[in-house]
Automatic annotation (TrEMBL), chain A:
<dbReference type="InterPro" id="IPR006059">
    <property type="entry name" value="SBP"/>
</dbReference>
<keyword id="KW-0574">Periplasm</keyword>
<dbReference type="GO" id="GO:0042597">
    <property type="term" value="C:periplasmic space"/>
</dbReference>
<comment type="similarity">
    <text>Belongs to the bacterial solute-binding protein 1 family.</text>
</comment>
<protein>
    <submittedName>
        <fullName>Sugar ABC transporter substrate-binding protein</fullName>
    </submittedName>
</protein>
<dbReference type="InterPro" id="IPR050490">
    <property type="entry name" value="Bact_solute-bd_prot1"/>
</dbReference>
<dbReference type="Pfam" id="PF01547">
    <property type="entry name" value="SBP_bac_1"/>
</dbReference>
TrEMBL record, chain B:
<dbReference type="InterPro" id="IPR050901">
    <property type="entry name" value="BP-dep_ABC_trans_perm"/>
</dbReference>
<feature type="transmembrane region" description="Helical">
    <location>
        <begin position="184"/>
        <end position="209"/>
    </location>
</feature>
<dbReference type="InterPro" id="IPR035906">
    <property type="entry name" value="MetI-like_sf"/>
</dbReference>
<feature type="domain" description="ABC transmembrane type-1">
    <location>
        <begin position="72"/>
        <end position="262"/>
    </location>
</feature>
<keyword id="KW-0812">Transmembrane</keyword>
<keyword id="KW-1133">Transmembrane helix</keyword>
<dbReference type="GO" id="GO:0005886">
    <property type="term" value="C:plasma membrane"/>
</dbReference>
TrEMBL record, chain C:
<protein>
    <submittedName>
        <fullName>Sugar ABC transporter permease</fullName>
    </submittedName>
</protein>
<dbReference type="GO" id="GO:0005886">
    <property type="term" value="C:plasma membrane"/>
</dbReference>
<feature type="transmembrane region" description="Helical">
    <location>
        <begin position="12"/>
        <end position="37"/>
    </location>
</feature>
<dbReference type="InterPro" id="IPR035906">
    <property type="entry name" value="MetI-like_sf"/>
</dbReference>
<comment type="similarity">
    <text>Belongs to the binding-protein-dependent transport system permease family.</text>
</comment>
<keyword id="KW-1133">Transmembrane helix</keyword>
<feature type="transmembrane region" description="Helical">
    <location>
        <begin position="64"/>
        <end position="94"/>
    </location>
</feature>
Length: 438, 276, 290
């Protein structure tokens, strides 16, 4: 305690020494390209708000998540603005850890109604917006139109899993390091489980029934996992069980995958001729379905939020307004071109002709986002919110543990049945410990 | 006379030695080479070893994004600070254990080492809560304290084993001359102990420099050392190999150069009593 | 009389170290022990309640626990084996005079200066990746099928990465010990007509025993808490193939944010580590005496 008051004393001395009127915002964010650009463009914000200084903490996703979660849960107060995902927002809002962005929603020029409805609803708790979306994504199929043409195949705009499987097997030529399909396999709730949970939705599976009973013993899950494991065995790259987003991106960009089902933000990476060897040969299609009325696409957004205890809420809200506004999109477009604006948050972007001209994947992205429904993710009713995750605190650990089982099935170390049985057991344990089921 | 070394033997060992050295160093060499490639080139397969378009682009990118020197300064302050404080606490203790051992000295040493066995993740939350209450989160002071404590057992042990090999007769002699305890330490013991202290210092700077759990979890913006600098380049969405390699090269360089220049000092005391 | 004075002086000198370490140990340990008996999840504040042995029950009956225990021992044992054998060979090599010996020595000790996360990332993606890694490229040069390291040999791969980082440490200690070996002793043995192998077994090896003991002890302490390498490369998978106890505690603490469960796991890990330590000291402590 004494130490703290000493430190506080020292701090206030420093503060009085000259920075008295300049407020410093500490912003924690992910090291993805769009956020890095935001950091670079922040001079524009500082020019408009000379009384606010910005301090950046840029970290990789997993480290950032640990840091901000520990901080907000213990009320450490180290950050004024946090970058969090759609998984955290409803859980944290429920705890009262986030400040509702009332000023933002009231601001006419911010035009909150312009936000894409599925994204906005995921960030709303009890009719209040708790976080502003910085960029949003769904998932879809990226494929090589040159290879499809050569093989005499035509990818429909809305393919089925059957077609995808057939095409993948046909396009595989392992002796030439050509693989029909690349899918995530690295264990993790945000890695292979994002893909598999979204995929299972289109097969009609669900994590829990209405009374929170785990459902891995149901035939839908078996069908999903069997399909995935067989497909990857026959048409996937070696080492698939340790591939995540980046590994697959590298494979696709170097021309080793004919198809890749992953985040829509990947579209701008694979279309960038500076990084991608296949930039002019890529086309896009909606995530596959099984004829059950749901597609295997997810919904995610990185958002900016203010911790409830922050002393600098006014300045923080100003910054969030700047970073998620329409003007920010224009600013990025004027500096780095329309292809580089953060996608997936505003309807107006998808009506902007200039954007549509440079981004052939824009319509697919919008359709994918709009077709995802976090409150009704799958065919049967569920007690939870979230498409490729379950918005309960236990999910990060449980999702990763289940992901390990599925990744083991992919690596061939356990059978599909065994993996599902283990997953069921793990989930039952966790649900029991959490008091969801008796 | 029997040890005349034939040239052929020397050449053979030269070849083997360089081959082994190259293999062990290869991952680092590869990182350095990759830092001069473009992102596309970095994942080229088959890999390009030397014949690619060398570029400094990644270094420019890294420099424009982060304040490298601030992170270096934090790393320097934290690793040197914790090591110096650790030495200040450990030298008297190790001296006492070496020259005035009791039956329990060994147990005390073993107990000290055993404090390192609690996995850091298990105590993160307690420490975080304490640091929050004491206002130590994201301060260099806080990180210095933590790193001092986690490396103290190693410091004590290393010094103890080194001190123990200093012959006691010299101390007896100085005592006969009527030297006081303070003089004994300053004029007799210190000069003899310097090599041991120097290598302890170096080893602990290396350990503190590379400590990535506490430094990452207890810092935010102000005290963040190079481990946090690395964490801002690893695994973003998109290709990052060249940039990560550049950042890694920058993060490793200071400590690698320090280590290389001082390796003789490092080795001299790095015995942990293993040499009789 | 002098002894009495030095005794109390000695005690005084040890006080700061012992006291600070004691506080550093006992405060977190006590808090951890207390938390381990609570139902306490960071993400659900206000719900803390007495849980008795619930957390321990769940941690110990976790299906991953048994595998993690075995993996921890295999990982520590494997790294020790590689670093001791490899370190001895390297030390013998570096003890020979050859051209550029100093530079080779610098190359060999370099891995020790690399941060664990960096080396794990480099190994995983640039060396071990079955499509664009260097190992795969070498395998294809010889017309072989590239090995899928992290999927098929996950624990072995992690062991390799960690061993690479610790090899320099073992080499340096063993080299210092080797160089302190009496030249005369070696020469005498040579004159007696002892071959290089018997010279190694009867003279060099016994001389190195102490140094090896030291390497084992120090490395074990660090290796028991390895987890950054696992997190970066395999996430403990596939299945539980590369999950160790520390990783299990990590999953509780920073994925679940289950402070109660992580604390119980931490306590279990301390107990296990101490069992290993006692065992080690019994087994090799003799070497450290005198």
């Amino acid at each position: 305690m004494r130490l703290k008051s000493l430190m506080l004393g020292a701090c206030s001395l420093i503060a009085m020494a000259g920075f008295a009127q300049a407020e410093t915002l500490t912003i924690a964010t992910v090291n993805n390209g769009d956020m890095v650009r935001m950091q670079k463009l922040a001079d524009d914000f500082k020019a408009k708000n000379p009384d606010i200084d910005l301090q950046w903490v840029v970290l990789e996703e997993n480290v950032l998540r640990q840091r901000v979660t520990t901080d907000i849960a213990t009320k450490g107060g180290q950050y004024d603005i946090m970058t969090i995902g759609t998984y955290e927002v409803p859980i944290w809002a429920k705890q009262g850890w986030l400040l509702p962005l009332d000023k933002l929603t009231a601001d006419q020029s911010y035009d909150v109604d312009d936000l894409l409805p599925p994204i906005r609803s995921g960030l709303t708790y009890e009719d209040k917006l708790y976080a502003a979306p910085f960029y949003g994504e769904s998932s879809f199929v990226m494929y090589r139109k040159d290879l499809f043409e050569q093989a005499g195949l035509t990818m429909p705009d809305a393919p089925t899993w059957d077609f995808v499987g057939e095409a993948a097997r046909k396009l595989t030529d392992k002796s030439k390091e050509m693989y029909g399909i690349c899918l995530r396999g690295k264990a993790g709730w945000g890695e292979n489980m994002a893909l598999l949970t979204a995929m299972s939705n289109s097969f009609g599976a669900r994590w829990f029934d209405e009374s929170w009973k785990p459902q891995f013993d149901q035939p839908e899950w078996k069908e999903t996992l069997e399909y995935y494991v067989n497909l990857m065995k026959e048409a996937g790259p070696p080492g698939a069980s340790s591939n995540g987003f980046n590994e697959n991106l590298a494979l696709f960009q170097t021309g080793k995958c004919a198809m890749w089902i992953d985040a829509t933000v990947a579209a701008s990476f694979v279309s960038d001729p500076k990084e991608s060897q296949v930039a002019d040969k890529v086309a896009f299609a909606l995530a596959p379905d099984k004829g059950l009325g749901k597609r295997g696409n997810w919904l995610w957004a990185w958002t900016l939020a203010i911790p409830a205890g922050s002393q600098k809420t006014e300045a923080a809200e100003k910054f969030i307004n700047w970073a998620t506004s329409k003007d920010y999109l224009n600013l990025v477009a004027s500096k780095d071109g329309w292809l580089n604006v953060p996608p997936g948050t505003r309807t107006s972007l998808y009506e902007n002709q200039e954007y549509l001209k440079v981004a052939p994947f824009a319509k697919m992205t919008l359709d994918s986002i709009n077709s995802a429904d976090p409150t009704k993710p799958t065919v049967k009713p569920v007690p939870y919110v979230g498409v490729q995750f379950v918005a309960i605190p236990e999910f990060q650990g449980l999702g990763t543990a289940v992901g390990q089982q599925f990744s083991a099935a992919l690596a061939g170390q356990v059978s599909v049945d065994q993996a599902l049985q283990n997953a069921q057991q793990l989930s039952e344990r966790e649900m029991m410990k959490g008091g969801y089921i008796k | 006379m029997a040890r005349a070394i034939t040239t052929r033997r020397k050449v053979t060992f030269t070849i083997i030695g360089w081959l082994v050295g190259f293999v062990i160093f290869f991952p680092i060499l590869w990182t350095i080479l990759t830092s001069f490639k473009t992102e596309g080139e970095a994942i080229a397969s088959p890999p390009h070893f030397l014949f690619f378009d060398w570029t400094l682009q990644s270094y420019f990118d890294v420099q424009s994004r982060s304040n490298y020197f601030k992170h270096v300064m934090n790393s320097v302050v934290i690793s040197f600070g914790s090591t110096l404080i650790g030495l200040a606490i450990a030298i008297p203790a190790a001296w006492a254990m070496a020259f005035s051992p009791t039956k329990r000295t060994k147990d005390v040493l073993m107990w000290m080492l055993s404090t390192k066995m609690l996995p850091p993740v298990g105590v993160l939350v307690p420490i975080y809560l304490l640091f929050r209450d004491w206002g130590l989160l994201d301060t260099r002071l806080g990180l210095v304290i933590v790193l001092t404590m986690i490396n103290l057992p190693i410091i004590v042990w290393m010094l103890y084993t080194y001190f123990k090999e200093i012959p006691g007769e010299i101390l007896e002699a100085s005592r006969m001359d009527g030297a006081s305890l303070a003089k004994e330490i300053i004029y007799v013991l210190t000069p003899m102990a310097v090599p041991g202290i120097a290598s302890t210092l170096l080893l602990n700077i290396i350990l503190a420099w590379n400590e990535a759990f506490w430094t990452l979890n207890l810092s935010a913006a102000n005290a963040a050392p190079l481990t946090a600098f690395i964490a801002s380049y690893s695994s973003p969405e998109g290709l990052f190999w060249a940039k990560l390699s550049a950042a890694s090269t920058l993060a490793i360089a200071p400590i690698l150069i320090l280590g290389w220049f001082s390796q003789r000092q490092l080795v001299r005391g790095l015995t942990f009593g293993a040499v009789k | 009389m002098a002894t009495l004075r030095t005794r109390s002086a000695a005690r005084l000198m040890m006080t700061p170290a012992v006291l600070t370490l004691f506080v550093w140990m006992i405060v977190p340990l006590a808090m951890t022990l207390y938390f381990s008996l609570l139902r306490y999840n960071l993400l659900m504040p206000g719900m803390e309640e007495w849980a008795g042995t619930l957390n321990y029950r769940y941690f110990l009956t976790d299906p991953a626990f048994g595998a993690a225990l075995v993996n921890t021992l295999l990982l520590v044992g494997g790294v020790l084996l590689i670093t001791i054998v490899g370190g001895t060979l390297l030390a013998l090599l570096l003890d020979q005079p050859f051209f550029g010996q100093g530079i080779v020595r610098l190359l060999v000790i370099a891995p020790f200066f690399v941060m664990p996360t960096v080396s794990a990332l480099v190994w995983k993606n640039m060396l071990m990746h079955p499509v664009y890694g260097i190992f795969a490229w070498i395998a294809r040069l010889f017309g072989l099928q590239p090995v899928d390291w992290l999927a098929n040999l996950p624990l072995f791969s992690v062991t390799m990465i960690v061993a690479w980082q610790w090899l320099p440490f073992a080499t340096l200690i063993l080299l210092t010990a080797l160089q302190s070996l009496d030249e005369e002793q070696k020469e005498a043995a040579e004159m007696d007509g002892a071959g290089p192998i018997s010279r190694f077994i009867y003279i060099v090896l016994p001389h190195l025993a102490r140094a090896m003991t030291v390497v084992v002890l120090i490395e074990t302490i660090f290796l028991l808490s390895v987890f950054a390498e696992i997190l970066v490369t395999t996430n403990g998978g596939p299945g539980y193939e590369s999950t160790n106890i520390t990783y299990l505690v990590y999953a509780q603490a920073l994925l679940q944010f289950d402070v109660g469960g992580a604390s119980a796991g931490g306590i279990v890990a301390v107990i296990l580590a101490n069992i290993v330590a006692i065992f080690l000291i019994r087994l090799i402590g003799k070497n450290l005496e005198a």
